[in-house]
């Protein structure tokens, strides 16, 4: 089947790796021979004469030799028999099979791993299986120590016996179905104790999952859960490392692992191979399908083909006369050149991987540059590998030229190529001693002015000082002015010294920077004066629609000023005469006044916000509230408009008005078409209380000659005041002298005078209790008058 063939290919490929590495079976194998020496050459080329920059090249040309090796081979195959090995593989074609069945077929097949290893009678094979048991659930370990792995096949070169034992591999049926990789390694170490001293010792580990168990110091299996904690995973990894270190003590020659039927085992295998390091030849492979395997083993074959050149390091130790160029100029690279049979270069390319550049300092305080090639890097036959990097003459070099008058000095104190070849370590020195030449230096200086939009150059010339090396005292002084188009030159400078620092005089309102630059291959100092912008904060106060003049506003207003640099980082320190902490400070400004924060850095981002306590009772509007200071001064105008109040007064007029009753009013507030809701302070007589607007509406009650003031209402809000229908029944109601309900916009405080008039009974339509009483009183009074009149007439008649 395709699945079986794929697994058989895994094992066959492992055998192929073992053949290539150690020469198993009847194939030609490696043997001791003389150590080849690569061709080496070192040179130096001046690449930038004006800046004294040189490129150093250290090259090595590899050679290849096929030689024999006669050591026998002891191989330990460590197989995972956890429960997941009984799972079916994904169907590619034909019937599906389990992972374990596929593995056994590949192990015992004709031309499989067993036959390939044991076809040479000098070679031996041992097979170990491992799983993981947790039968003792109370203590989280199995019943007896060190029993999660066993040796299925002890050292043997009997092919028939090995195949029989391989075919008998089975997942434990007693519940021991975990993955205790440490157990497999522990058992392998026990078997390694009986390996032959003269044999090449190799371990091949196959697992299909992460380790989820480990042996403690007593050999008990430790298990936490299907989702172990970080601390438990750490314990597993430490156990793996411990077992690897024990294996390395047996002078292991190779360790190769396979993450089988997926990549879930990669993390555990990474821990193992990290512990192996460079001490043991090792590699990790994943086996999911035949195509992946082919790619893996093609790489293995490629690596092993030229495995004789390993641990290659090209080293160059600089002399005191040169130093590395700064990171902006220096160029470290490794170039590979390929040649044809005529010795002509057919291809040249810069390598981007397979090596590491290391820059260190030796015990003698000299700079060391190394190209360290990776352990698995493949050196092609008869190709040249060139380490290239740039240097310039050092201070000691210039001093030596000045003191001795010599024209050249060596660039290197030593250079070597070191490598390992078939367990032999070699270090070969380069014979060439490249030289660097002396130079003369002259440095121009330029002055630039970066002014504000309306700015002017305040001076006719400026003085610039040049410093030699790190000395505090200036070495040269140059006056640069408008007459020379703001250009000058530092001349007659001592050779061999560095001139990296210059300082120009300070000018108020400007920042000044001096920078050593390069243009068209020539260095020069650029002095740049940048005029600084200012931020002015102005305060305007409006009360009852009128601007308050300066000096009439009482206490000053407090504002928080926030400053950030052009990258958005808070500024801390003295800026504009104010102290900023974490980007903030507060300033006080009275109405009609302003404050100026002078000479702030270019690109400063600012925000001005009045404090809550200062803005209480005001509507605060900003002009240029926030922005960035570039090439113009900025002014922030903060306008405080006193929040308006709404006063409602009640008067009851007319002979029949009830001046002792409560009259109810509905107040409606909106702003910009939306209801105003919330609580506002209300004063009624001498008492303050809160009035609540819900969905823009509130209700208040007033008696005759009472009033209510609702304070600090939103500026520009629209209001409507209307007495409720029940309250105004029987009365003629006017609002500020009109019969319509009161409306308006609160651009300033407003007053609504509400007058309820009841002049006579008929005019009111009279249905109030007070109106009825009045009517009855009038009727009664009339009846009394009529009665009195009739009595008086009768008396007069009687008298007559």
From TrEMBL:
It comes from the Bacteria. Coiled coil: none annotated. Residues 74-300 form the VWFA domain. Transmembrane segments: none annotated. SMART domains: VWA (SM00327). It holds the Pfam family DUF7601. InterPro entries: CLCR (IPR051266), Collagen-bd_Cna-like_B-typ_dom (IPR008454), DUF7601 (IPR055382), DUF7604 (IPR055384), VWF_A (IPR002035), vWFA_dom_sf (IPR036465). PANTHER family: CALCIUM-ACTIVATED CHLORIDE CHANNEL REGULATOR, ZINC FINGER (C3HC4-TYPE RING FINGER) FAMILY PROTEIN. This is Fimbrial structural subunit protein FszD.
């Amino acid at each position: 089947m395709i699945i079986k063939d794929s697994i058989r290919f895994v094992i066959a490929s492992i055998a192929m790796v073992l053949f290539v590495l150690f020469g198993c079976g009847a194939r030609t194998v490696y043997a001791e021979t003389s150590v080849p020496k690569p061709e080496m050459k070192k040179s130096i080329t001046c690449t930038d004469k004006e800046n004294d920059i040189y490129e150093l090249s250290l090259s090595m040309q590899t050679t290849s030799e096929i030689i024999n090796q006669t050591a026998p081979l002891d191989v330990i195959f460590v197989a995972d028999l956890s429960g997941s090995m009984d799972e079916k593989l994904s169907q590619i074609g034909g019937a599906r099979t389990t992972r374990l069945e596929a593995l056994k077929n590949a192990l015992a097949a004709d031309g499989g791993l067993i036959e390939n290893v044991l076809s040479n009678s000098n070679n031996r094979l041992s097979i170990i299986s491992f799983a993981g048991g947790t039968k003792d659930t109370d203590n989280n370990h199995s019943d007896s120590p060190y029993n999660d792995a066993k040796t299925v096949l002890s050292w043997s070169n009997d092919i028939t016996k090995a195949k029989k034992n391989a075919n008998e591999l089975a997942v434990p049926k007693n519940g021991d179905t975990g993955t205790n990789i440490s157990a497999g390694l522990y058992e392998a170490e026990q078997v390694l104790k009986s390996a032959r001293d003269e044999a090449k010792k190799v371990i091949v580990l196959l697992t299909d999952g992460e380790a989820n168990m480990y042996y403690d110091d007593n050999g008990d299996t430790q298990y936490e859960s299907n989702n172990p904690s970080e601390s438990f995973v750490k314990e597993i990894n430490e156990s793996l490392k411990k077992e690897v270190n024990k294996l390395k003590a047996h002078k292991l020659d190779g360790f190769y692992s396979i993450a089988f039927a997926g990549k879930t085992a990669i993390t555990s295998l990474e821990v193992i191979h990290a512990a192996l390091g460079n001490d043991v030849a090792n590699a990790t492979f994943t086996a999911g399908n035949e195509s992946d395997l082919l790619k893996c083993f093609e790489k293995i074959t490629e690596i092993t083909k030229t495995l004789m050149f390993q641990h290659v390091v090209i080293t160059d130790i600089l002399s005191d006369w040169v130093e590395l160029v700064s990171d902006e100029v220096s160029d470290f690279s490794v170039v590979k050149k390929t040649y044809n049979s005529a010795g002509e270069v057919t291809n040249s390319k810069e390598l981007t991987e397979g090596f590491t550049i290391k820059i260190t300092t030796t015990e003698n305080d000299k700079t060391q540059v190394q190209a360290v090639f990776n352990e698995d890097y493949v050196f092609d036959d008869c190709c040249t590998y060139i380490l290239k990097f740039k240097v310039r003459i050092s201070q000691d070099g210039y001093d030596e030229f000045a003191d001795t008058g010599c024209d050249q000095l060596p660039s290197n104190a030593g250079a070597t190529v070191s490598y390992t070849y078939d367990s032999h370590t070699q270090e070969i020195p380069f014979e060439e001693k490249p030289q660097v030449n002396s130079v003369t230096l002259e440095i121009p200086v330029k002055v630039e002015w970066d002014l504000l939009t309306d700015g002017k150059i305040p001076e006719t010339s400026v003085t610039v000082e040049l410093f030699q090396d790190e000395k505090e005292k200036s070495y040269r002084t140059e006056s640069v002015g408008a007459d020379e188009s703001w250009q000058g030159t530092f001349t007659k400078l001592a050779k061999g010294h560095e001139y990296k620092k210059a300082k120009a005089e300070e000018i108020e309102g400007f920042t000044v920077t001096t920078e050593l630059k390069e243009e068209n291959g020539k260095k020069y100092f650029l002095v740049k004066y940048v005029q600084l912008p200012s931020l002015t904060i102005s305060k305007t106060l409006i009360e009852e629609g009128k601007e308050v003049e300066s000096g009439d506003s009482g206490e000053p207003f407090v504002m928080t000023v926030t400053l950030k640099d052009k990258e958005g980082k808070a500024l801390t320190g003295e800026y504009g005469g104010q102290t900023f902490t974490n980007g903030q400070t507060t300033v006080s400004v009275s109405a009609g006044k302003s404050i100026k924060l002078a000479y702030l850095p270019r690109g400063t981002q600012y925000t001005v916000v009045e404090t809550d306590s200062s803005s209480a009772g005001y509507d605060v509007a900003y002009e240029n509230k926030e922005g960035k200071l570039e090439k113009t001064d900025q002014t922030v105008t903060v306008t405080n408009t006193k929040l308006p109040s709404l006063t409602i007064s009640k008067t009851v007029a007319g002979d029949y008005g009830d001046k002792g009753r409560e009259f109810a009013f509905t107040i409606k507030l909106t702003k910009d078409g939306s209801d105003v809701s919330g609580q506002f302070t209300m004063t009624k007589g001498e008492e303050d209380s809160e009035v609540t607007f819900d969905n823009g509406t509130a209700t208040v009650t007033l008696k005759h000659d009472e009033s209510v003031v609702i304070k600090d209402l939103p500026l520009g809000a629209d209001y409507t005041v209307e007495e409720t229908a029940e309250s105004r029944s029987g009365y003629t109601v006017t609002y500020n002298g009109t019969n319509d309900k009161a409306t308006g916009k609160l651009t300033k405080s407003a007053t609504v005078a509400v007058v309820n008039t009841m002049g006579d009974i008929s005019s009111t339509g009279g249905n109030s209790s007070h109106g009825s009483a009045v009517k009855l009183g009038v009727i009664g009074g009339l009846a009394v008058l009529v009665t009195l009149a009739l009595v008086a007439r009768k008396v007069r008649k009687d008298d007559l």
